[in-house]
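Question (not urgent): is this output format expected?
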Amino acid sequence: MGIYDNVIADGKTIQTFIPQREPMVMVQKLHKAEGGQTISSLDISESNIFCEEGFLQEPGLIENIAQTAAVGVGFEYRNENKDVPTGYIGAVQKLTIHKLPKIGNTIITEVNVEHIVFNTTLINGKITCDDQLIADCSMKIYLNE
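Got this back:
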């Protein structure tokens, strides 16, 4: 059984870990959230607000990385019986979009926490589709606790 077969949360449960609501939810399944690493997946559908001309566009990929980071934090906070904080993207750095995923594809997003200083977290995120890297970046995320 691979990591992607393991589903910690999906559907409405995901929404208990993030402040976003439809149509802005960009994380469908949570596969891992431990040790500073979060892995999620999203099936790209035609109804996705960030889809255009048959592809998930760049803002959707960025939002997917940010929400993957958020779902990891939210999962941790819920497990500690704390209120889930709201996070804000402070900066996106070294963004590379290699390819846009098509409607019908599933993307896998991995976020790794690099540093935490006070309420600011530096993460590295990458998105794969069919085992191919399609996007990666670093982000600074500010948590309003």
